[in-house]
Specification:
By secondary structure, the chain is mainly alpha-helical. 76% of the residues lie in helices and 0% in strands. The chain contains 18 helices and no strands. Helix 6 packs antiparallel against helix 15, helix 11 runs antiparallel to helix 12 and helix 11 runs antiparallel to helix 14. The radius of gyration is 20 Å and the shape is globular.
């Protein structure tokens, strides 16, 4: 979607509605199984390693997909690609209605992950192109809806199961909001030709050390999110909590993520230097993970909420920071896509590593301790993200010289 002018008022509102509808569908398929894992295990006999695949495999695909998506976008265009991706996401949730065992359930997770991969790769560039004067705020809204969708999935499935639905039907209900987003995208997205990614741009960006630093920081933080999604509910169920109560904890995490993902980019918009706010998100995560690891019964809602706030704010600010690096939407969008791609490949290892630590130690607390180490490492990576150096660091990434930091 080319151009850097704001759309007309009516179309701008339509695009904002689409941002909401699309964003809210990008996480429920990940958060929904956690609170009802006991039902799934009772029916399928899946172990911890297999259950980890419900998060690991789609996140791996979300990572790989970010590298593949620019080529698909160049070949078929943004509109067709997004419509196809939303159709795949809708189908993945709907097919869960007839999932007969663990393998088929994992395959549906992969199908959903493949659809989300393209959407996540394409959408930041769309936001930068269509809302150049309010990119941080709209990115915050988009991130807020992603996290809010996570709350929807975690809250909805245990309620449906307790109301008499099978776990398969509860998971399949998530096809409804995805189908609504598909219909909205069909109506709202323009059918005109749009600027498509430069096929050579990915290779140019991958030769920049900054791209890899962004990937590492994004991945280390989101490994904490993926582990929370996969194992927070089972962690507290092992301490005697019900599926509904533990699902509510996941929902609390996601709601706090949503609020932070919306608020922090708006608060940080006055300065191009996002590092103080990024460090704040890491402090919140550190407090939350420490509480979960060492004092889980003291104040679970507080630990989960503050950790969620840190995770949500870090997610949205990371996208904003990636978009800050380059002036042209197609360049900035490609960089944000690569950051998410490499980042999700790293993040996918979080649930699996936590499961292995659980098997070794007998508790998920060792996994939360591992994420404390990840947070500490990310603190030093964020130190490098000084906006005064963006123009020089990213200069070879485009056909024209990047403007100086002062000119932005």
């Amino acid at each position: 979607m080319s151009g850097t002018t704001q759309p007309a008022a009516g179309r701008q509102w339509s695009l904002l509605v689409l941002v909401v509808l699309v964003g809210i569908n990008l996480r429920p398929f990940l958060t929904a199984p956690g609170p009802i894992l006991a039902n799934i295990v009772a029916d399928t006999g899946m172990g911890y390693s297999s259950l980890a695949m419900l998060t690991l495999l789609p996140m791996l695909l979300m990572g790989v997909g970010a590298f593949v998506a620019p080529g698909i976008q160049a070949a078929v265009g943004t509109r067709r690609g997004l419509l196809l991706a939303l159709a795949v996401l809708t189908s993945g949730s709907l097919i869960r209605l007839v999932a007969t065992g663990g393998l088929s359930l994992i395959l549906t997770a992969a199908l959903c992950g493949a659809g989300v991969a393209f959407i996540q790769a394409a959408f930041p560039g769309i936001i930068k192109a269509r809302f150049p004067a309010s990119t941080p705020a709209v990115t915050g809204l988009y991130s807020c809806m992603i996290m809010g969708g996570g709350a929807l999935g975690a809250r909805l499935t245990p309620q449906l199961v307790n109301s008499g639905y099978s776990w398969r039907a509860a998971l399949a209900w998530l096809a409804v909001p995805a189908g609504i987003a598909l219909c909205a995208a069909f109506r709202v997205l323009s059918d005109t030709k749009e600027a498509r990614p430069d096929r050579a741009l990915t290779g140019l960006l991958l030769r920049r050390p900054r791209t890899w630093a962004l990937m590492a920081a994004f991945g280390l933080v989101n490994s904490g999110y993926s582990s929370m999604v996969a194992w927070l509910a089972p962690y507290y169920q092992a301490q005697g909590w019900s599926s509904v109560a533990s699902g509510n904890l996941v929902a609390v995490m996601a709601v706090c993520q949503a609020v932070s993902a919306l608020a922090l980019p708006i608060l940080a918009r006055r300065s191009i230097d996002r590092r103080p706010w990024l460090w704040l998100t890491l402090l919140l995560q550190a407090v939350g993970f420490a509480g979960l690891a060492f004092f889980p019964a003291l104040s679970p809602i507080f630990w989960v909420g503050i950790c969620g706030a840190g995770l949500g704010g870090s997610f949205s600010l990371a996208i904003v920071t990636a978009l800050d690096h380059l002036p042209r939407p197609e360049q900035a969008g490609a960089l944000a896509a690569l950051m998410q791609g490499g980042g999700f490949l790293i993040a996918a290892l979080g649930p699996f590593a936590t499961a292995l630590l659980h098997d070794w130690s007998g508790s998920f607390a060792s996994g939360w301790t591992m994420h404390l180490v990840c947070v500490t490492t990310t603190t030093f990576l964020y130190l490098r993200f000084n906006p005064k150096g963006y123009a020089e660091i990213m200069r070879p990434a485009g056909n024209s010289p990047a403007p100086s930091a002062a000119s932005r």
